[in-house]
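Morning F.,

Quick status update on the modeling queue. The single chain you submitted on Monday has been processed. Sequence for confirmation:
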Amino acid sequence: MPAQQLNRQLIEESKLRCEKWGLDPTIIPDPIEISQEQLHQIQRENKEVLKVVEFFIPEFLKMVKGTPLLIVVTDHQGIITYIEGDNTIKDVIQQLGFRPGVQFTENYNGTNCISLALNHNLPVEVVGSQHYHNFLCQSACYSVPFKDHRTNGTLGTVSIMTALNFEDPLLLSLLSIVGTSIEREIQLQEQNKDLNVLNQVLTESSHTAMILTDQYGRIMEFNPYAEKLTGLKRKDVLKKPASELAILDDWIEKIIQTKESFSDVEVKFQKPNAVKETICLFDGRPIYSVNQYFIGTVCSFRDITERYENQLLMQHHAHHDDLTTLPNRRYFHNYVNGILNSAKGKDISLAVFLLDLDRFKLINDTLGHAKGDTLLVEIAQRLNDYLLEKGKLFRMGGDEFTIALADFNSLEEVKKMADDIIEVVRKPFFLQNLEFHVSTSIGIALYPNDGTDINTLFLHADTAMYRAKDQGKNGYCIYNSDMNEESLKKLTLESELELAIKNNDLMLHYQPQIDLHTNQVVGVEALLRWNHPELGLIPPADFIPLAEEMGLMVHLGEWVLNHGCRQMKKWHDQGLTTLKLSINLSPQEFLKQRLVDKVKQVLQETGLAPHGLELEITESMTMDVVRSTSILEELHELGIQIAIDDFGTGFSSLNYLKNFHIHRLKIDRSFVRDMMNGPKDAQIVSTIISIAHALNLKVIAEGVETEEQLHFLENLKCDEIQGYYYSKPLSASDLEKKYEFNSSRGVIHP
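Structure tokens below.
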């Protein structure tokens, strides 16, 4: 079972146990605390472990400097023996009762990473609402057990606690490396403990390499582990000067000359025919006779190659993205700060590019994160192949990348690179046998005009990137100071949009849909409007993208579904029972859990018959065929009609038209707009209508604005139309007035 899936399963099982035990998630449990005498006894028993921890943890905290987090170490019973890290987090958890001497257990503390790691002897992450108790739901916690290699029993855990907005799976990877390093160091210390130096020379099973020399530096003993570690043979080195052993440089000579002792000196050497270096810690001291005459040296060195490589790996993980292997945000800050620090007093050029993939969330939502990750890896490879030595590429997280371009010669060079990057990203990708065209929006900030520090440059690149998105995406913008006002306006709208949902400042307008055979209004499309108390009606183009970024589309969609169905029920009660309501579903709504249950609930609460509701989806939402089929079948069984919106602009496949439960195709307004200007668009419209009719589907064309377009569509046997030719979107009351909705005839004529 994959690690993430197992992690979720362990958490779910833990929560069920906590519920069975009757733990109250709203109450902060009083700590189970042992006495100070018991704590000191445990710390004495774990002295060697804590000594190793106190070496590794400060090194680890240096590597993740800038990320506020806390390191917690427990023994095998879950009793906290050591806490270090961010003082603010430390103060908060101490106020909650968490301090050395406090014990973590699942049946008392609820679902937590320490208990899970101890109970299952696995690395565990518990993030946000995965915690059982509510007071921990704003934190992200990671825990790794470490073992005693002699008994294979668990010695304890090392854990990270940080704020939820700093949640990052990378932390668990780094923590696992720390745990492995602690285990290895404990093993090394156990191997060396209580062993007499001269006994080690004679002990075949020793895991410490030993060399004994006389007062002149000639090798008198070379133990078996020294042979194994160096690749040299004892018989070949005995009686020879130690100075001839390149493995120890001149350390033995230093002992002979100075009579000093040396400890934990790092030495590196390469065995004969070895591919990589061996790294050892060297200890050496002089030996004296009973009469205090200097008679030689005794030297030991132990292999720390694995620990050294673990430290390098830990440093790599701290500064590189796990998925793409690109340098990460921390590396970006260090790299750019290095350039800026060296720039003082010098005339240098630096451009910061911020790239954000357009509509990447749609691919993640429809094809799943695994396919989204595949796409990110390929994009990273393409960008790296293009850049080579031109600039340095970083992944900031999600679908954001940055490029630092230093020492460019002109602004035209910067613009040329931006144009090239856009073309590199636009080349087609193939996922699940579908061809994708992904685009990117780029914001650029230039040193020193747009900022002289990393935070300002990045902020201004971010502002320029959003301007590029606002201008239609798939392009770039170079920052200028006028953008700050637009950014402030956007931030203001973001904060007010959530309030608009709560304060009921939203409203629906309805655009009629006309049957070309009967010339009757057969349906209306519900279109969301924001009636801002100061700015008036805000068009969807100004706030729907914000809602998508903020994750509010599901809330907005539920609001539209509720209010639209209530209004349609009123019209049905007036005798207009053949009238249908069309509502657009966003990808987040279509793919969310319990969509069908939500639709059932709204129909039941409003009393609207299922045939009075039509849900519009886009072609891209059907890319996850298995899931889409299940959802569409359930909606079909419920009696809901399904329309494909913007048909012909997405990832068109005749296969889903044949296999899915679809009732209507909606021709995108771009084809309707251009069909009178050239044969290609006219042929596309004609083909869509022919295909739909061959599959017994109805066709509706949106964006009809002229009589010429109307007659053209009539000649092509289009079934229904929608557009300004008949009516712009109107409020419910204005629509009733225009079409006399109080008619008792049951039909409406435009």
